């Protein structure tokens, strides 16, 4: 069975160059059910609103495309932690689930028909107001000895940050 048929999806959207006018943004938001719009509008910064909008649009697009549920029948709910889920799964994929993440210029979504799926997008950027070492030391108590040693041996400041953000311990913070 092909991935397309199996319910497995991995989509990533680069929103760097998308600079919608207020009317364009409102038109895109109007594609969503009205109960989804306050979650987007609550953000103060434009970039945060853009990420929230694209995330919601990806969720509805994915469910529509994978499960072929008519758009007006899609009912996406949220766990207390904010993870989206489909209110009534379809019989084709009784364990179908998806997750979204966004940071920086990227918004992503992943779905699985059998396994629980998680997604965590991390934008690696140079710490402001402190050195890379000073920044990472703030998190040393969360790292195992092995993780800490891998980070210290990584090389350049950029490689150290990449290694730091790739550690499982950092995904739990």
Automatic annotation (TrEMBL):
GO cellular component, one term: cytosol
Protein name: holo-[acyl-carrier-protein] synthase
The protein's Enzyme Commission number: 2.7.8.7
One MF term in the entry's GO annotations: magnesium ion binding
This protein's UniProt keywords: Transferase
The keyword Transferase belongs to this UniProt entry's keyword annotation: yes
Superkingdom of this protein's organism: Eukaryota
InterPro entries recorded: 4-PPantetheinyl_Trfase_dom_sf, AASDHPPT_N, P-Pant_transferase_sf
GO biological process: lysine biosynthetic process via aminoadipic acid
Pfam families assigned to the protein according to its UniProt record, in alphabetical order: AASDHPPT_N
Residue ranges constituting the 4'-phosphopantetheinyl transferase N-terminal domain according to the UniProt record: 17-113
Phylogenetic lineage: Eukaryota, Viridiplantae, Streptophyta, Embryophyta, Tracheophyta
């Amino acid at each position: 069975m092909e991935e397309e048929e199996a319910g497995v999806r991995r989509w990533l959207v680069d929103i760097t160059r998308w600079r919608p006018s207020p009317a364009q943004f409102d038109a895109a938001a109007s594609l969503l059910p009205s109960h989804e719009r306050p979650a987007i509008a609550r953000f103060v910064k434009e970039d945060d609103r853009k990420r929230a909008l694209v995330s919601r649009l990806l969720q509805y697009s994915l469910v529509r495309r994978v499960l072929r549920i008519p758009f007006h029948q899609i009912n996406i709910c949220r766990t207390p932690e904010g993870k989206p889920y489909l209110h009534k799964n379809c019989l084709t994929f009784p364990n179908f689930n998806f997750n979204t993440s966004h940071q920086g210029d990227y918004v992503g979504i992943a779905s699985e028909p059998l396994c629980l799926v998680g997604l965590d997008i991390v934008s690696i950027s140079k710490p402001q107001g402190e050195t890379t070492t000073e920044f990472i030391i703030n998190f040393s108590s969360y790292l195992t000895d092995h993780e800490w040693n891998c980070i210290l041996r990584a090389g350049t400041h950029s490689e150290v940050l990449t290694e730091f953000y790739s550690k499982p311990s950092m995904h739990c913070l």
